[in-house]
Amino acid sequence: MGKAELYIFATRESKDQFIKTRIENRRKNVETAGTIQRRIEEGGMVDCKICGEKTSMLGTRLCHNCWEVSARLRKFLQSKAGMEMAQAIIDEFVHKGEK
């Protein structure tokens, strides 16, 4: 066990409960991976509603990258440095289009 695991064991759970929880979490991870694989095999891929890339996220219809940007962009742009960085990237793309 790692230090964090020992800390959790010492503060919240009995050893048996800790082990049961670890086994259950691993089982859930395997089930999730299986669900994604089944979606892919059953043709459960859709086009991302922003960029058009194929994604298995049928609920949001967003690929990983578009979800990350849409979930985090507003907070990022609240800082002056974030806004300057975004503006520099946009300017770079605009100038590439002019060539």
Describe this structure in words.
The protein is mostly helical and 99 residues long. It has a domain at 3-71. The chain is 70% helix and 4% strand. The chain has 4 helices and 2 strands, in the order ααββαα. It has a two-stranded antiparallel sheet with strand order 1-2. A hairpin with a 6-residue loop joins β1 (46-47) and β2 (54-55). The longest helix is centred in the first third of the chain and has 27 residues, at 15-41. It is flat and about 60 Å long. The mean pLDDT is 79.
* Span between termini: 57 Å
* Helix share bin: 55-70%
User: Cα-atom Rg, whole angstroms?
Assistant: 21 Å
Could you tell me the mean pLDDT?
A: 79
Q: How many helices in DSSP terms?
A: 4
Q: Largest sheet, described in full?
A: 2 strands, antiparallel
- Shape descriptor reads flat
| Sheet with most strands: strand arrangement | 1-2
Count of distinct strands? 2
Name the helix and strand elements from N-terminus to C-terminus, one letter apiece.
Answer: HHEEHH
Residue share in β-strands: under 5%
Category from helices, strands and their pairing: mainly alpha
